[in-house]
Design goal:
5 strands; 197 residues; three-stranded antiparallel beta sheet
Length: 197
C-alpha cells in the first residue's frame, strides 16, 4: 500500500478535522520520510494540516500528522494546559513548541532515555479523564478498549470510535480513487470550526 493511502487510512480523522492528530509508524527511512513530509506540508499546510517525522530506527519512521487549529484549541483548554505543565511542558507559546517537545520525548523513550510520554493522548484528542486514568492505573482496569483505553464516558467514547472508523474507511476509499491528501483535508479556522470551501 502506498504512503498516501496509509496516511489517508490511519490519519483520516486528523485530516478531516474530527481529531487533533494521528500517529503512524511506517517502514521507511528517516530521510525518505522527511522528503515526503516536506511535500505533504507544501500541499496541506494552507489547510491547517502539518506533518512531522521521527526516525525511530534504521527503516521505521513515525509520522505525527496534526490539524493545527484543532490541536491549538485542545492545548489551550485550561484543564489540559494545567495537566501538561505538570508533565513538564511550559505554558503554551505555540503549537509547534509543544509538538516538538512531544516528538523529542517520544524519541528519548524509544532510545531508552526516558519513559514513554503518555500525555500523547492529549495530543491525539483522547479525553483528559481517560489519559489521567490510563496513567494512574498503569493501563489496567479500563471500562472499554478501542482507539484508546476508556476510564470515563463509555458511550461518548464508543460514538467517537465509530466516527473514527467510518472516517478512515471513507478517506481510504477516496485516496484509493486517486484523491490527493490535500483534497481530504478540511480547513478549520482559529477557533477550530470547519471553513466551507
Amino acid at each position: 500500500m502506498g504512503l498516501e493511502k496509509l496516511i489517508a487510512y490511519h490519519c483520516g480523522p486528523a485530516l478531516t478535522g474530527i481529531k487533533p492528530s494521528n500517529l503512524l509508524a511506517v517502514r521507511v527511512t528517516g530521510e525518505a520520510a522527511a522528503a515526503k513530509a516536506a511535500i505533504f506540508n507544501i500541499q496541506c499546510n494552507r489547510r491547517g494540516i502539518f506533518f512531522n517525522t521521527m526516525n525511530i530506527s534504521n527503516n521505521t519512521t513515525l509520522f505525527f500528522v496534526y490539524n493545527k487549529p484543532l490541536l491549538e484549541k485542545t492545548l489551550k483548554n485550561p484543564g489540559t494546559a494545567f495537566f501538561l505543565i505538570k508533565e513538564g511542558y511550559k505554558p503554551l507559546k505555540s503549537v509547534e513548541s509543544h509538538v516538538n517537545r512531544l516528538c523529542l520525548r517520544i524519541i528519548e523513550a524509544n532510545s531508552g532515555k526516558s519513559d514513554f510520554p503518555h500525555e500523547i493522548g492529549i495530543f491525539l484528542g483522547y479525553p483528559l479523564e481517560d489519559v489521567k486514568g490510563f496513567i494512574n492505573n498503569k493501563g489496567k482496569n479500563c471500562k472499554m478498549c478501542g482507539y484508546w483505553k476508556v476510564y470515563g464516558d463509555k458511550e461518548k467514547a464508543g460514538d467517537m470510535f465509530r466516527r473514527y472508523t467510518e472516517c478512515r474507511r471513507i478517506c481510504f476509499l477516496k485516496a484509493s480513487a486517486g484523491l490527493p491528501l490535500s483534497e481530504l483535508c478540511v480547513c478549520h479556522n482559529k477557533t477550530g470550526e470547519p471553513v466551507k470551501k
